[in-house]
Design goal:
Blueprint: H1 2-19, E1 39-40, E2 44-48, E3 52-54, E4 57-58, E5 67-70, E6 76-78, E7 83-86, E8 90-98, E9 101-110, E10 113-114, E11 118-122, E12 126-128, E13 131-132, E14 139-142, E15 148-150, E16 155-158, E17 162-170, E18 173-182, H2 198-209, E19 211-212, E20 218-235, E21 240-257, E22 262-271, E23 275-284, E24 289-299, E25 308-318, E26 332-337, H3 345-366, H4 374-377
Parallel strand pairs: 2-9, 11-18
Antiparallel strand pairs: 1-4, 3-7, 5-8, 6-7, 8-9, 10-13, 12-16, 14-17, 15-16, 17-18, 19-20, 20-21, 21-22, 22-23, 23-24, 24-25, 25-26
Length: 383
């Protein structure tokens, strides 16, 4: 009887326990352990070329082994321990296999590049360094901030002369730029604008102020009429000197001739139809040598054509031989009509020099206000 009672009590207990909720079925003092499902430490990674990382799979049972594999070992490799090594820019998938179950991680490898690996700056200058090819956080650092500083954006500021390195670090990978700072250069002295040569200055003056002729030449000129002058004539053939007060015309001009890039200085002195003399001085631009031509006309006996004296003479000399007064150039006859043989070559040469002395101040007057002097052109004259 007692045996049946024990069996009945046991059946009732089992029935009651079966009817209770599951959570109520755990007897006091009992510990319930639930095993975690295996999982990979990262399912997505961004790495920098040269960087290493280690993948793990947690929640494995004791004794379970992992087989690792890379879909592209040229991009990223993985060893038996799950250690990754970023090799080149690109993407690959790392797979860890446990008991035929696969766990994957997609890896993107970036290959950043500095826009400069070496640079030279002067004190006070700035420069913007850039690390392209990555979207990861960049940390900038200077090896010597007394020489050159760098801010969070990679901008350099040169502080003092010396050498330093700037490092950009991404995910533990460093990119280095060598920096040389030189002393600040002294302010450059402005290069003075070279003054135009006198010949060029004279040319420009004539072109801006002168009159253009049909042959392309341009000249500045001045003519004075009926000016009373005392003329001293010393013609040895006449036996005496003669002096007379006459009314004269004086014409002077300076011409620029583009055809041969030269200048012609001209002066004419005339006393109506009785006396004429003119002198022409020509020289190439910026030359110091001149050619001179002198023409002299004098009617000794106006009613008799045979009394007309005409002389054409020439000379060449440096401009420095031409003075305000007392020029002493040697002129030679080219052509001579001398009916009474009153004009010797010496006398004619003196007349030519006298005419030249007369011409020089008139030429100087033509240049007034231009900033050009005859001396600057090479003449000995002080004007």
């Amino acid at each position: 009887m007692k045996k049946w009672k024990k069996i009945l009590i046991s059946l009732i207990t089992v029935f009651v326990l079966a009817m209770l909720p599951a959570e109520s079925a755990i007897l006091p003092g009992t510990v319930c352990v639930t095993e975690a499902a295996p999982r990979i430490s990262s399912s997505k990674l961004t790495m920098i070329k040269g960087q290493s990382r280690t993948l793990k799979i947690t929640g494995l049972k004791k004794g379970q082994k992992i087989t690792w594999k890379s879909s592209n070992s040229k991009i990223v490799t993985v060893n038996k321990a799950g250690k990754l090594q970023a090799k080149a820019k690109g993407s690959a998938t790392i797979t860890g296999t446990v008991s035929k179950r696969k766990y994957t991680c997609k890896v993107t490898v970036q290959a950043p590049k500095l826009n400069k690996t070496s640079i030279t700056l002067k004190v006070g200058q700035t420069y913007q360094l850039k690390l392209s090819g990555t979207n990861q956080k960049i940390t900038w650092k200077s090896s010597n901030s007394k020489i050159v500083t760098v801010n969070k954006a990679g901008k350099l500021f040169a502080k003092s002369a010396g050498n330093a390195t700037i490092t950009a670090q991404v995910n533990g990978i460093r990119f280095v730029c060598k920096v040389k700072i030189q002393k600040k250069a002294a302010p450059a002295k402005p290069t003075p604008t070279a003054a135009p040569k006198p010949g060029i200055k004279l040319k420009n003056h004539i072109l801006s102020k002168g009159k253009k002729a049909s042959d392309g030449s341009v000249k500045i000129e001045l003519n004075t009429h009926d000016e009373s002058k005392k003329i001293d004539m010393d013609l040895g053939g006449l036996g005496s000197s003669s002096s007379m007060q006459v009314s004269v015309d004086e014409y002077r001009s300076i011409t620029y001739i583009p055809k041969n890039n030269s200048f012609k200085f001209y002066f004419r002195f005339s006393s109506h139809d009785d006396l004429k003399s003119d002198i022409t001085l020509t020289f190439p631009m910026n030359s110091t040598a001149a050619s001179l031509n002198f023409y002299f006309y004098m009617s000794i006996l106006p009613d008799d054509e045979s009394g007309t004296l005409i002389a054409t003479m020439s000379s060449s000399a440096p401009l420095s031989a031409i003075r305000n007064e007392s020029s002493n150039l040697s002129f030679h006859f080219q052509k001579l009509t001398n009916p009474y043989e009153v004009l010797t070559q010496k006398d004619a040469s003196e007349l030519a020099n006298d005419t030249l002395d007369m011409a020089v101040p008139y030429w100087a007057d033509l240049l007034k206000g231009s900033g050009i002097t005859l001396r600057s052109l090479g003449f000995s004259t002080t004007k």
